[in-house]
Every structure is written in structure tokens, then in C-alpha cells.
Amino acid sequence: MVEAERMRVCVIGTGYLGATTAACLSEMGFEVIGLDVDEDKIDMLRSGRVPFYEPGLDELLAENLKTGRLHFTTDFAEAADFADLHLICVGTPQRDDSGAADLRYVNSAVECLAPHLKRPTVVVGRSTVPVGTAATLAARLAALAPAGEEAELGWSPEFLREGFGVEDTLRPNRIVIGTNSPRVEKAVRALWQQQVDEGTPFLVTDLQTAELVKVSANAFLATKISFINAMAEVSEVAGADVIQLAEALSYDDRIGGKFLGPGLGFGGGCLPKDIRAFMARADELGVEPALSFLREVDAINQRRRARTIDIARQLIGGNFAGRTVTVLGAAFKPNSDDIRDSPALDVAATIASLGAHVTVYDPQALERAREAHPELNYATSMLDAARDADVVLLLTEWAEFREANPEELASVVAQKRIVDGRNALDPTFWRASGWTYRALGRQ
Ligand code: UGA
Asked: Where is the UDP-glucose/GDP-mannose dehydrogenase C-terminal domain positioned along the sequence (predicted)?
């Protein structure tokens, strides 16, 4: 392996994780080649356009293309020739036929790359995979690569949050590398030397532990969200207020306030599919009961969507047919245009299927939403979306919605009724403007 400052890195996969990783590593001074099998994506990235919305990434991409340290390709031979370290950053979505992870893209990355690895090379997986995957891939890599055992594979999960991808990559809260190879460890240490020097914890584990760190972190986060949402269910019937409850819990620093935000629950391309893949893997390993609580976590999360729809239905008198409904938010969370398993869009589509005329507005995700749900109506501003609404649902807590002016919104709607699916608004303030305000877990 060459010295850190001259190490050349290939990032395989240029989605949220890969494109962000490639631009950030280049920003850190490495020479980077980003590889994807999707030619359109590579063309866009080459011309300085990011194929999705991630704050700060456009600028970083443009700057680093200019430095000449960042390139893109669709050619595995070119990437293998160029790089000393390959990072696998492809997606592992949920399979169509079960809750398990679809490993076709990670398998294909190894199979396409390996035949070109003629010199000693380190390959590090960053994608989220079921425990046991990395060991299988390591064997496959060594079998297919002309370099044989000198083509070594480790696993180093990423923990970046969409919307904060640049920050989380440049300043990770920990680096975990699963490997028993000193060469792999050295390469990964060199990659993050700057961060480690600044205090980022660096943990070396076996392959299985590294894989498990990622899925158990996401399982924990999902559990925490569903825990507070379960408390919201109880609060509603018991006459309590889940926002005050969450605040009171948060002062116990063993519990903490993060990811204790009650509301419509989690969505996105990670938490939902990761807990399902984790359960599927536990089942295969014969330890299904160990994770059966995750089934409940998933069920609580789904019930939040149904409950949100119920509250809106009650507000308009029990029937959606022929009513005008406004949905604020389509992305699975603010500061993202990702609509994968978006609770907001799911709710919008269900309400439309019940006969309402649903208009959706989102600051960034409109295009993707329209593609996925052409049956819904879309507006290009909050006020346009809210025109003549019988009820407004706030389902993704973009700053624009949090800061919405109740008087201004009141001037366009037919009825001043709002369902705050994210507990993002101040009920007193909205009620003072004459709105009927409802939220999950509150009276
Ligand atoms: C998540 C993890 O937070 C990252 O650490 C991880 O690296 C990433 O998945 C991944 O596996 O790649 P992300 O999917 O970007 O990141 O989104 P989060 O910020 O975790 O939010 C997930 C969902 O939970 C969102 O729908 C959000 O609205 C919801 N949420 C979050 C709540 O409902 N309540 C909360 O208190 C917090």
C-alpha cells in the first residue's frame, strides 16, 4: 500500500452514500474515482450535477472536479488500474419477495471488480449488509481476483444521515473496521487519519461485529422512535401529552432526547428495510426470538400512519370522499428529496385512494413524488397547495412548514383544520389564529 497522502481511492456506487463519500474523500486530499454502472448518473456527476438533493454536496462536487482529484467512470478495469483502495457503497434495498436484503448490487460490485485486481488491493464494504455477508464476499474476491489472497476485503459500515451526509462523512462520530488483516486496517486508518488525529474513535473488530454494529445501530434508533410513538398511543387515550413526556424523559441522560421525537414515525431507505433485513437474518441464524421485538417496532411505526389518517378523517366529519386535502411534505424527512418508504407520501396516497382530492407540496421532493405517485396532485408552493383545503396535514417537518404563518395559510384554506403529523408546530399559536389543531400523542 502506498503512503496515505498518495493513496488512490475508488468509490463503487454513486448514490447518496457513494457520491457523498467520493466528494468528501477528494476534499480531504485523496485522488478519487467514483464508479457506477448507471451512465446517466456518471454523466451528471462529471458535469458537476448531483443526481439527488444533499445540502452542500453540489459545491463540494464542483470544487473537487476543478482540483482534478475527483473523476468518474463506468469502467471497472479503469478503476482497478487507478485505485489502491476500493470502497463498496452500493445499495442493499429490501427484496421484493421478503423482508431480507437484496444483495445483488454488492455481489455484482465484487464480481465485476475482482477479475481486474492484478496487484495487492484492499476492498472495503461500506454498504449495510446482513451479518455473514462480508466473509462470503472476502472468499469470493480472493477466488476471482488474479491477485488471489492479496486482494483483501474488510467491512467498514457508514453511519451518515441523509441531509447531513457531508458533515457526517468529514466528521464521523466513529470509524469501525472489521478485518483481521493488518493491511486492510492500515489502509482504512490512513483514510481517516485526519479524523482520528482530531479524536474520532477508531475501532477494529472482526467482520461480523462490524456488520452487526451498523444494523444494530439502526435497530436501536428505530426502537427509540417506536418507543416514544408507543407512548404517544398511550398518551392519547390516557389524556396525557407525549411532548411533555418526551421532554421529561430526555433530562435523564441515560435516555437522552435524540430520536425521541413522537409523530408519524420513521421511513427512508435505511431504518425500515434494515430492521426487516435484520429480522430475516436472525431467522436464518436460528435466533428469530432475539429480534422479535423489532416486529413490534415496525408495527408501531405503521400504526402511526393509520392513526394520522384517522385523525384527519375525524376532523372532516368521517369521510374523505370528494374532500380537498393538502399534504405538506413528500420526502421521508426534511433536507432530503428521498421518498423511499416516505410516511408522508404513504399517507397522501392512502387518503387519495379513499376518494379525497389530495394536493402535495414539498420543497425538494416534488419531482420524485410525482414520478412515484402520478395519481396525486402537486403544487409548487405551500399556499397553492393549501388552496380550498378542508384539512391540511403537515407530514414532513421542513423549516418552511415549521415557520408557516397560520394567518396567511388561513386566508387560502376552506376550513382551518390542521393535523401536525410531526409535532412541529406550536398548538397554542395555531389555535389562537382560529385553527382546529390536532397532533399525535396530544389532547
Ligand atoms: C439513518 C441513520 O440515522 C444513520 O445513522 C444511518 O447511517 C442511515 O440511516 C443509514 O443506514 O444509511 P437516515 O435514514 O438518513 O439515517 O434518517 P434519520 O435521520 O435516521 O431518520 C429516519 C427517520 O426517522 C425519518 O423518517 C425521521 O423523520 C424519523 N424520525 C427521526 C422520527 O420519526 N423521530 C425522531 O425522533 C427522529
From this structure: 326-427
Two domains, one topology: 4-205 and 206-443: yes
d(CA 98, CA 432): 48
Q: Whose CA is nearest to atom 27 of ligand 1?
A: 266
Contact 18 CB / ligand 1 (< 6 Å): no
Residue 236, C-alpha cell as written in the block: 392519547
Q: Which fold has domain 206-443?
A: Rossmann fold (3.40.50)
Whether 2 shows a pLDDT value over 80: the answer reads: no
Instruction: Say yes or no to pLDDT of 4 above 90.
Output: no
Which ligand 1 atom sits nearest the alpha carbon of residue 261?
36
Superfamily of domain 4-205: NAD(P)-binding Rossmann-like Domain (3.40.50.720)
Q: Which of 20, 88, 92, 270 to mutate to test the pocket of ligand 1 (most atoms within 8 A of CB)?
A: 270
333 CA → ligand 1 middle, Å: 8
Asked if residue 426 lies in contact with residue 405, where contact means CB atoms within 8 angstroms, the answer is: no
- Rounded to the nearest angstrom, the distance between the alpha carbon of 152 and the centre of ligand 1 is 32
Give the end-to-end CA distance of the chain in Å, rounded to a whole number: 62
Specify the DSSP element, H or E, that contains 122: strand 121-125
Residue with cell string 434508533: 221
- Going from N- to C-terminal start, the domains of the chain cover 4-205, 206-443
Ligand 1 centroid to residue 392 C-alpha, Å: 24
Q: Is the backbone of residue 263 left (phi > 0), alpha (psi -120 to 50) or beta?
A: left
The reply to whether the predicted model has a pTM over 0.85 is: yes
Protein residue with its CA nearest to atom 21 in ligand 1: 266
What would the pLDDT profile of 182-206 be if each residue is shown by its tens digit?
999 999 999 999 999 999 999 999 9
